[in-house]
Amino acid sequence: MDLSRWLTEAVAANAAWAKTFGPFEPHPSLAVDDERFAAAFASFAERLTDNYPFFHPRYAGQMLKPPHPAAVAGYVTAMLINPNNHALDGGPATAAMEREVVQQLATMFGYETHLGHLTTSGTIANLEALFVARELHPGKGVAYSTEAHYTHGRMCRVLGVDGHAVPVDDRGRMDLGALEELLRGGKIGTVVLTAGTTGLGAIEPIHEASALRERYGVRIHVDAAYGGFFTLLAGDLGIPTEPWQAIAQADSIVVDPHKHGLQPYGCGAVLFGDPSVGRFYVHDSPYTYFTSDELHLGEISLECSRAGAAAAGLWLTFQLLPPTREGLGQVLAAGRRAALRWAELIEASGRLRLYQPPELDIVGYFAGDSLSEIDAVSARILQEGMTDQEDPVFLSTLRVGGERFSARHPGIAADADGARILRSVLMKPESETYVEHLHERVEELAG
Ligand SMILES: *Cc1c(COP(=O)(O)O)cnc(C)c1O
To answer: 198: Cβ below 6 Å to ligand 1?
Structure first.
């Protein structure tokens, strides 16, 4: 699709709608002439060139990529109206779109009933899930693995509940033996399992943890902020089925459409299996809601103002690339194949080594024979890769502890307490055809 055409259409559609309300006089205080705008815009555009090429497959670093053009067109078109999805009065159209996309997400995870809404981010979505968990298990703590997103610990402090970090196995997944020991103490009310850890994309054993849920009466929250959409590929491309199937039994789920759902930032989502948890949000806003008797989005959300445009962008994207295996699933499948291919190339390489086999689309790798050397080489490759004038590559590093490193690679001299390894998130489908070149470049840099 031709984005410039559809951005022009966006302005035209908005003007046609605005015209139905009759003419009025624009205020001179807001007037900006095109000449002054051009000058400001030129320096603005220049400032924005200070960025990494997130759109290009030579950027294989963090979880960053531009939104799909359909998301941009949907977001911009709605933003011209600027609805606020806090309340139905804030924008009936985008509130309805939000309900529809949240239903699609719930269906994707196999939820038969749900209460849910979009959020500004995965962090806020997780905060909401932990807030509800605290209300249901007052005085009890929250357990998450040492590989869980760092904001779980932070949000436990915000909520005034005890957070407990549970050790992981040698693939970076929560150790359920250690979890059960903790649960026996009776101090835990909620267990957070991560479906796709942020560091290495490990899928924690959600299916096996379900038994502990019954035995110890704990809630299960699944943090699928990064990995959630991979449920579309369960059973395919070496992605197991069981943990994804078990998500349907979780008490709450978080997924970030602004990571793997092709959306601009400002789009997370939280889903609860039991709609009655809406009672915990009841508040007493002095502002009038004049259009609705049913719970509206602002009554089931901790945030107040929230971009209706975010729901619009996701809704329009899902019309074209729905959250199904044939739709959005094909976008993720290409990145997954790229990760598998790169892992193969690294295993055959004389210079690079795989840190562990990729479970989703994140590849961890290193060069060197001791932790201190590996750390130095990772830092050097990162720096030289992105400053190369001719053929740059943009990677990222991940710090791993010495013990965890030795569990995977006992032959590496443990002469430091940890090391940075190289990490690449292959979340653009274009990585699939570019991965051979990426590998060549990183091998050159390692040599
Ligand atoms: C990214 C991420 C988060 C935080 O989400 P934001 O949208 O960045 O706030 C939480 N959990 C996991 C597993 C993540 O990958």
So the answer is: yes
